[in-house]
Amino acid sequence: MLKMPTIKTIFFISLLLSLLLVSCSDSAAPVYQGSEIEILKASVTHELEKEFERHDYSLDELDHGVPPLILQTMPRDLSQISSSSRKKEVFFKSLLPMILLANNEIHRERKQIIEFKQILEKGGKLNDDQLHRLNSLATRYKVESANLTSKQALSELLLRIDIIPPALALAQAANESAWGTSRFSQQANNLFGEWTFIKGAGIVPEGRPEGATYEVRRFENVYESIRSYLRNLNTHFAYKEMRQIRAEARAAGNKLKASELAEGLFRYSIRGEEYVRDLQSLIRSNRLTRFANVGLKSRG
Q1: How confident is the model over 28-41, as pLDDT tens digits?
Q2: pTM for this model (two decimals)
Q3: Do 279 and 262 contact (CB within 8 A), yes or no?
Q4: Which of 6, 107, 181, 226 could hold 79 in an S-S bridge, CB 3.0 to 4.6 Å?
């Protein structure tokens, strides 16, 4: 186990607490215009694979897009699958549609902020509905300003409201949930181990210190866990370096690269740079960048 000086240990514990605490009010239906979203309730792997087959869903044939599927739960028998390649394929096929749905939602939010910015730059004013939407997004992405229509506030919103490359989300999900087999992912639909202090809103982790009150947050479905994770990366101060790397890529007109953004996540784990290297290795060894330009299936 990595040993740290006392002061650094205390700082990391404080940081970890703030990272793992998330709002339980962050819930909304997917905003998506395309093929009808379907919630899959398959509880075991072979049932889920049949559902994928029914949707003609193969990771090797994504030219026509990914079907918009939401998993109610991860398959209960994932840990029993002896074939590593099969387990990984099921894991990636399960999460990719939900990551794309969540990114689609963020993309629409970002587009709205850009539209508001363009109106204001041309000397126009936002109407009441637009101002209400602006306030809602500022609240969701934790941007505080006396004047949300200011250039500075809008720039901060654009810094935060942006997508996470699927490759990075998949790598972190695999790392944090042990490929969907962890207790929290299985019992609470929680892929990333997020905490809550609302009694009964989660499950009590084994080995929780006496007197501690936190629980591991329970999500309604796997999609909600992914949405919460993306919001966490886009709002928490610990990941400002990642957001800056992303903003610089945008400003230069470059595509977002998962391995580059991973460089800004050294505070995600006590392992620091070693954790970043693990993510980059997962991205590389599983060829996750092949999903960089994949989209959701359109209607029809």
Answers
A1: 556 566 668 999 99
A2: 0.88
A3: yes
A4: 181
